[in-house]
Amino acid sequence: MTFLHKNIVGLTACTILLLLLLCYPISSQQKNISTSVLVINSINVFEKSKLGKDILFAFQDAALELKKEADLNAKKFEDEELELTQKRDVLAKKDFNELADDFDKRVQKTRNFYDLKDSQLRDSLEKWKKNFIELSGRIIQPIMLDYRAFIVLDSSQIDLFFDNRIDITEQVILELDELYKSDPKYLEVILGK
After folding, report:
1. Could you tell me where the beta strands, DSSP code E, fall in the chain?
2. Which of 17, 84, 132, 156 stands the most exposed, by the fewest C-beta atoms within 10 Å?
């Protein structure tokens, strides 16, 4: 065997070994770890999972409908305000002031109504997120058993330094997507429909 041939064989063997190490699945590495603490990023699970994205779309659709309704009412008030301004010169000051006060009260009442509706919609989103987290727990608990873990820390809530092998965020997203794909009713359950 020539020197060149030995180097080519050695280089090929090293390349194959390196490729095997790089291609070794992360999830396989994770299964070999036994730890009492796991890490998850709940914001990523919510924002990257199919179910979480659908919840956000439902919220955005509801917010858009509310905005359209509020904009329509705002346009009506603008038209009414223009009419009222045109009556200023025709009406007695007392009559005009009464109409203007009534108009202001209705505008404020409508603003309060839409502020309340907006607040209720945001409260609904928080409730939907809570329901989502409860459903995610059904995915997380079996993963905890696999790792023999007792605690799951949320890296989106606190600053953590940790070994990436104990981060189960992607695993939870994948399994949650599979659960949702197998039964799309989870969106309706979370939204309370």
Report:
1. 37-40, 151-154
2. 17
